[in-house]
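Let's practice the habit of predicting before peeking. Look at the sequence and jot down your guess about where helices and strands might fall. Then scroll down.
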Amino acid sequence: MNMNKVREEDDYSVVIFKPGTSPGERKKGLFFFTVLTIIILAQAFFWLFANSVEPITWGMPFGMFTVVVLILLEFATLAAMYWSETREDSDKGGAK
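Done guessing? Here is the structure:
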C-alpha cells in the first residue's frame, strides 16, 4: 500500500514537512522550531528563575529585564529564519 495515497485519502495525518523537502531544509526547520520553542517556554516560566526585583538592570526589575531579553532573542531568531529563507528562495520567484 502506498503511504502517499493513504495520506491524500484520509487528510487526517500530521505532515511536518512537504514531500520532497531536502534534508538540509528539514534540519534548518527543526533547529528554528527547537530554538523558538525553548524561548517561548522560557517566557512562560521565567518566574522560576527571574522572580525578583533586585538587581535593577537597565532601569528595570530583573523579571522585566528577563522578559525583554527573551523577546529580543525571539525577534533575532525570527529575523535569522526570515533572512535564511529569503536568501535561498530569491532566485526561484514568487509565481508557481
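How did you do? Residues 62-89 form the longest helix (28 residues).
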